[in-house]
């Protein structure tokens, strides 16, 4: 439908937990389409959550299939409504960026393997994800819970970096 403007930190919606979606109706389907369009328009974006476009609902999209880090291990485009991580294991630190915090990246420790349950236009789903896809899903679910990657950096002194190039 349309590319929506990205809300930038420190906008309060980014720190506010999103509300659960009661049912997937035409408005939620349109929101999912706008999220996909916005993700595809973003430089190097592999996901976007509804709060990042100013909508306080538990809706996000993830697609790492075109990323060099995720192209060999992914589920394709994930349209997630009310996602919930039900299992996690392993841990690794990876450099993360965010369209809502465009001037910085940071080293964040995340689970390397997760199981996530969510609703989609196709119905209720549960998938296991690993590697970069697992990281991207955790990052987007954090947005739905009112967290930014900045909140997950263990030391702002040694783990936060000014982005050199955002294209």
From TrEMBL:
Reported cofactor(s): Fe(2+)
Organism, scientific name: Geomesophilobacter sediminis
Coiled coil: none
GO biological process terms held by the UniProt record: translation
Its EC number(s): 3.5.1.88
HAMAP family referenced in this protein's UniProt entry, alphabetically: Pep_deformylase
UniProt KW keywords: Hydrolase, Iron, Metal-binding, Protein biosynthesis
Family as reported in the entry's similarity comment: Belongs to the polypeptide deformylase family.
One Gene Ontology MF term: metal ion binding
Keyword presence, Iron: yes
Cofactor note: Binds 1 Fe(2+) ion.
Keyword match Cell wall biogenesis/degradation: no
One Pfam family hit: Pep_deformylase
Name of the protein in its database record: Peptide deformylase
Source species, domain of life: Bacteria
InterPro entries membership: Peptide_deformylase, Peptide_deformylase_sf
Active-site residues per Swiss-Prot or TrEMBL entry: 140
Binding positions for Fe cation per the UniProt entry: 98, 139, 143
Catalytic reaction equation(s): N-terminal N-formyl-L-methionyl-[peptide] + H2O = N-terminal L-methionyl-[peptide] + formate
Function: Removes the formyl group from the N-terminal Met of newly synthesized proteins. Requires at least a dipeptide for an efficient rate of reaction. N-terminal L-methionine is a prerequisite for activity but the enzyme has broad specificity at other positions.
């Amino acid at each position: 439908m349309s590319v929506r403007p990205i809300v930038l930190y420190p906008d309060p919606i980014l720190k506010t937990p999103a509300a659960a979606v009661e049912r997937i109706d035409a408005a939620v389907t349109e929101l999912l389409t706008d999220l996909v369009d916005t993700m595809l328009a973003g430089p190097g974006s592999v996901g976007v959550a509804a709060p990042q476009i100013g909508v306080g609902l538990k809706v996000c999209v993830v697609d790492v299939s075109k990323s060099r880090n995720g192209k060999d291990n992914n589920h394709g485009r994930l349209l997630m409504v009310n996602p919930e991580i039900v299992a996690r294991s392993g841990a690794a630190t990876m450099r993360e960026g965010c369209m809502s915090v465009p001037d910085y990246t940071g080293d964040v420790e995340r689970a390397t393997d997760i199981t996530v349950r969510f609703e989609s236009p196709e119905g209720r789903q549960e998938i296991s994800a690993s590697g970069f896809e697992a990281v991207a899903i955790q990052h987007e679910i954090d947005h739905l819970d009112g967290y930014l990657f900045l909140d997950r950096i263990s030391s702002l002194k040694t783990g936060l970096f000014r982005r050199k190039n955002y294209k």
